[in-house]
UniProtKB/TrEMBL annotation:
Source species of the chain: Amycolatopsis suaedae
Any GO BP: response to hydroperoxide
The organism's place on the tree of life at top rank: Bacteria
Pfam families xrefs: H2O2_YaaD (PF03883)
One GO CC annotation: cytosol
Source organism phylogeny: Bacteria, Bacillati, Actinomycetota, Actinomycetes, Pseudonocardiales
Descriptive protein name: Peroxide stress protein YaaA
Length: 247
């Protein structure tokens, strides 16, 4: 099973790993596109106003442009330590035991506008690039990534649980992946999509499934496992699940 996470806008600073080496990353077939995006991002960083505009940043965020400028020389961290924020707080990797961490490192991957997708242990630098950004030299990132990323993800063996947010789901379609809609149920029984706590619930679900001693191979098995782990999950389509937030 592969649990595909969205990235985060915020990244942990610094690192203790060597500078970025694309050969050290998983999904090696993505490296030509990774090289193209990384080089374009570094070139763009030479023009700070243009970078701020393309990345949707304010003038007070020019340190993010500095990060992009040093993309090839900055220290790295494993992807699961690099990404931060609500979902990753809920994932709570520091709380994993040794066996749990080993399982999570095999099962978790992160979608990325810069790298396409990275494995949990892939060493990456801090950077700023969102799925909806338009780097002038590249155009829409979806058009760039789809020809490379869709075949790469199609070759993944086993069940794929797709927890990506909209801009990152647009980078590659995964027809047979299982998606999750986090919902709340009103007094009238109607279910509404949860927005505020959506990331936290998905982070907790990902954590539980990634560290479980066994992994499912079917959608029905995934529902049974999530239920045993304490989640209120219902199958609403062939590859669609609903996670009841307030159960």
């Amino acid at each position: 099973m592969l649990v595909l996470l969205p990235p985060s806008e915020t990244k942990a600073p610094g690192g203790d790993g060597p500078p970025l080496d694309l050969a050290a990353l998983g999904f090696a077939e993505l490296n030509p596109t990774r090289q193209k995006v990384a080089d374009a991002l570094v070139d763009l960083a030479a023009d700070v106003p243009a970078s701020l505009a393309a990345l949707g940043l304010s003038q007070r965020q020019d340190e993010e442009v500095e990060r992009n400028a040093g993309l090839w020389s900055a220290p790295t961290l494993p992807a699961l330590r690099r990404y931060t924020g609500v979902l990753y707080d809920a994932l709570d990797v520091p709380a994993f035991g040794r066996a749990q961490l080993a399982r999570a490192q095999r099962r978790l991957a992160v979608c990325s506008a810069l790298f396409g997708v990275v494995r949990a242990t892939d060493p990456i630098p801090a950077y700023r690039l969102s799925g909806g950004s338009k780097v002038p030299a590249l155009g829409p990132l979806g058009s760039l990534w789809r020809p490379a990323l869709e075949p790469a993800l199609a070759r993944v063996n086993g069940l794929v649980l797709d927890l990506r947010s909209g801009p990152y789901a647009a980078l590659a379609r995964i027809p047979d992946a299982v998606t999750v809609r986090v919902v709340s149920e009103g007094e009238d029984g109607r279910r509404l999509t949860v927005s505020h706590h959506n990331k936290a619930y998905k982070g907790r679900l990902a954590s539980a499934l990634a560290t479980a001693p066994r992994e499912p191979s079917t959608v029905a098995g995934l529902v049974r496992m999530a239920t045993r782990l304490g989640f209120a999950v219902e199958r609403t389509g062939e590859h669609e699940l609903e996670l009841l937030a307030d159960a």
